[in-house]
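Write out this protein's structure.
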Amino acid sequence: MSDVKRILCGGRGGQGIIVMGKMLGWAAMRNRYFITILPAYGAEVRGGEAYCSVVISSQPIAMPEFDKADYFITMNQISYDSFFRRLNTDGIIIFNSSMIKEKKIKNINQVGISATQIASDIGNIKISNLVMLGAFCKVTNIFKISDIINIMDDALGSSKKRYFELNKKALEQGWKIRNRR
């Protein structure tokens, strides 16, 4: 991994945006990187807009906030429309094509993943964030899918252990479908 990666995750409360950031943080720490995570969400929690800024670096992080992200993982149209301008030139947007209509954006790579549909096919739309996380790992090569699987219990908490296989399947499906629109 190059020195600093800035990742913005965005969506609606209840779509697992904060969980995504948390899992990226756990994976980074396990791989001995420095990490900052700044979650933000409306008072509504479920249904309001949510986003999470993640910085991963091989060096101590002096400033956890950033103006421009290298990567943007987005789950819904409102976050896509609101935050795509916060991406660096040559950045990558990984978007949930089940819920987002792609715009042509100059100098930005975009990868659409039908995460909500895939999660529904697996059996639970609540795991669409994990489909997106698997796709993010494949597209960016920042983490191997095994890095995320290895931290899943810690990041999701003991109450979710019974869903381990379902969550793992969601990650694997995201990993498999790179650049599918």
